[in-house]
Design brief:
Among the domains are: 164 residues, no CATH class; 100 residues, Roll (Pdz3 Domain); 179 residues, PDZ domain (Pdz3 Domain, Roll). It is 34% helix and 25% strand. It has 16 helices and 36 strands.
């Protein structure tokens, strides 16, 4: 598993983040020199000094302080400017520290308690006029804003690609699906709708839509203005966001639209090739780079039209037409797959298993990580019949059994190409096989049925309980029609969902023949089957996201305008995030620290150099805003002290400053621990 991407991307992000810190501190440094304040240290990074340079001494491993004491007989800060100038030695040590994230400028007289002691020195920080010190304190933030503007302009002069604000899939019964139309016409957003404004504010990317909805006022609806294909004017809707259980943010539960062209890059992955073959597209001659023209006779503006066609198919085959872009076309029949429910078995607290009325599929190996010790032992498509002594494991039972053998081995009985085989698989130290597991919907052999599930906290018998099935049983027919896959079972039961019961023929493992059985359908079961959703037989990730390019190539003034807009927007959004954290609509576990920034940045670097530049501009704005918060130990807190001094004629007391500094350190330290924990959990999850 790649935690942070490859080393070159990590280096790029660390260097870029170091650049932002260096520019911030350079602002303080230049302003201090302008104000006549002696600067004793200019450091990039935190912690012990790795290498330092001082004019007149040169480079040294570690600090130049020892050489200064040898020459002048006292610490560097005690040497007067006259002696330094006479010896041709600079007053500032420039250093790189061990920890690459952070930095500081140390000015004469700015340390705790020393500020009053050196107030009489003309080149000390406390001796300069308040207005000059305000310039010095705010110079770092100003430099970060200027740098962000320059980076934005550079990125927009080339153009930056983002996910289009076009609606892809819409969650059934979610806020977008039930959005109320504010004009004549049907309610609900549809795949292909392009969102132009959220609460009257223009949006240019899908991320803009997500952020605007997440940052909307808690408990209130948002107004969406969309352009719909075929509509002669914009449509307006109102929707009340809900908490997305995955993103942990307020959302209207939509996904970004997918381009109808199969991704050539994604399909170089063996797992993607396996998915394509399993869907039947490879057999029809459709490969990476081919474009979806229509699904069930409906032209496809996006790949999400295929998902919609499968959703509304009720399990019936979906006819698709594809083109290679050079005149060749292929027709492929796709078989939608049932989206099984996730239920909680009574005997497995906290576990969510795949189920169809209590019937569960076996685990199937979909992918093996390259370099895994199980590569070659296991293959994509292997169906797990047993793990150690557990026959017919459900997916979560299989995972639990693997997790129980860290750094050990498990004995697997698998079904491969119609034949049974035994494999002794290796489990890593984290209790994983380094494989991706999915429901084996093409295999009619069943895992252990779920007899009782928790529904609203109550133990409720499932329809499968009346069948009294053992592990590895198989349904042979439904209502007299033979079935071979879970799709056929789901289709047959769904067609009889209005009945009180469904006749089956079931064959138990080892039994000579199938026997009749009756699946009793209660009202809840009938509702479940009537509302059963269907999905395309391959993941939508095989299609590239639909992209839009923001920029003004060859138009520097327009690029500057875009850069100013992004700077103001992001600064406002940062303040709004703090407000939403306080209100509770943005959870604390969404915050990222330095490790998280590097993690995100490595993935950003894969999207191209211009997007990396854009990302660094965003971080620069965030750095400016957070540094100017009115908190002790950051620039904003120092600025508040200076306002107090300007109004009262004296600075806050040393006791107050020390107490505030301690509180600030505890707050920043706590925030660091929270974000570090969040970052690590994201990496290892």
């Amino acid at each position: 598993m790649q935690l942070l991407g490859d080393g070159s991307n990590i280096l790029l992000i660390v260097l870029g983040f170091g650049l932002l810190i260096a520019v911030h501190e350079l602002g303080h440094f230049l302003a201090a020199r302008w104000a006549g304040i002696r600067v004793e240290d200019f450091a990039i990074g935190m912690g012990p000094t790795v290498v330092a340079w001082r004019r007149g001494i040169g480079f040294r491993a570690g600090s130049t302080a020892r050489e200064m004491e040898r020459r002048f007989g006292c610490p560097p800060e005690a040497v007067t400017m006259q002696r330094l100038q006479a010896a041709g030695v600079g007053e500032t040590e420039y250093s790189l520290r061990v920890l690459p994230l952070g930095g500081f400028v140390r000015m004469k007289g700015q340390e705790d308690l020393v500020a009053i002691d050196r107030a009489g020195d003309p080149d000390a920080y406390p001796s300069r006029p308040v207005w000059k010190r305000m310039v010095v304190v705010s110079a770092g933030v100003v430099m970060n804003v200027i740098l962000a503007m320059l980076l934005y302009i550079a990125a927009f002069m080339v153009g930056v690609r983002f996910e289009s604000p076009t609606v892809g899939q819409v969650a059934p019964n979610g806020p977008a699906a039930t959005a109320r139309a504010l004009q004549d016409g049907p309610d609900g957003l549809r795949p292909g709708d392009r969102i132009a404004r959220v609460d009257g504010v223009p949006v240019s990317t899908f991320a803009d839509v997500q952020i605007a909805v997440a940052m909307s006022k808690p408990g209130q609806a948002v107004t969406l203005e969309v352009a719909r294909p075929g509509a002669d004017k914009p449509l307006r809707f109102t929707a009340t966001p809900t908490d997305d259980p995955v993103a942990r943010l307020r959302s209207i539960l939509i996904t970004p639209a997918r381009d109808p062209t199969l991704s050539s890059e994604a399909l170089e992955d063996p797992m993607a090739q396996y998915m394509l073959a399993r869907s039947g597209l490879s057999g029809a001659g459709v490969h990476g780079g081919w474009r979806l023209i229509s699904a069930q006779g409906t032209p496809c503006v996006s790949a999400d039209a295929l998902a919609t066609a499968c959703t509304t198919s009720r399990g019936q085959p979906v006819q698709t037409i594809w083109s290679d872009g050079e005149g060749a076309q292929r027709t492929a029949t796709l078989l939608p797959q049932p989206m099984l429910s996730r239920v909680q078995p009574v005997d497995e607290p906290g576990v969510q298993e795949f189920s169809l009325l209590g019937l569960s599929p076996l685990p199937r190996i979909d992918w093996i990580r390259e370099g895994s010790p199980n590569q070659g032992l296991l293959r994509p498509g292997d169906v797990v019949l047993a793990i150690d002594d557990l026959r017919g494991p459900r997916i979560e039972q299989f995972r639990d059994a693997v997790r129980a053998r860290p750094s050990g081995q498990v004995n697997l009985t698998i079904l491969r190409e119609g034949a049974m085989a035994s494999v002794r698989a290796q489990v890593d130290a984290q209790g994983r096989l380094d494989v991706l597991v999915a429901p084996a919907l093409e295999c009619m052999l069943m895992a252990r049925p779920i007899d009782r599930t928790l529904v609203n906290g109550l133990a409720t018998p499932s329809p499968a309980a009346s069948l009294e099935l053992g592990p590895l049983a198989a349904i042979q027919s439904v209502r007299g029609s033979p079935v071979r896959t879970w799709r056929e079972v789901a289709t047959a039961i769904q067609s009889a969902a209005d009945a009180d019961s469904v006749e089956l023929e079931v064959r138990s493992m080892g039994a000579p023949s199938a026997v009749p059985a009756r699946l009793t359908m209660d009202p809840a079961s009938r509702d479940q089957m009537q509302g059963l959703a269907w999905a395309a037989p391959m993941p939508m990730d095989l299609f590239d996201p639909m992209m839009t390019t923001l920029g003004a190539p060859g138009r520097p003034l327009e690029a500057a305008k875009l850069g100013l807009h992004e700077t103001i927007k992001l600064a406002t959004m940062t303040w709004l995030t703090l407000d939403r954290l306080a209100r509770g609509s943005v959870p604390v576990d969404q915050l990222r620290g330095p490790v998280g920034i590097v993690h995100v940045g490595t993935r950003v670097a894969d999207r191209g150099f211009t997007y990396l530049v854009f990302f660094l501009a965003m971080i620069s704005v965030n750095l400016a805003v957070l540094n100017f918060l009115p908190l002790p130990i950051v620039d904003g807190g120092l600025f508040v002290y200076l306002i107090y001094e300007a109004l009262r004629g004296r600075p806050p007391s040393v006791r107050f400053q020390n107490a505030a500094t301690l509180a600030g350190l505890l707050l920043i330290g706590g925030l660091f621990l929270v974000t570090f924990y969040n970052d690590v959990m994201r990496l290892v999850s």
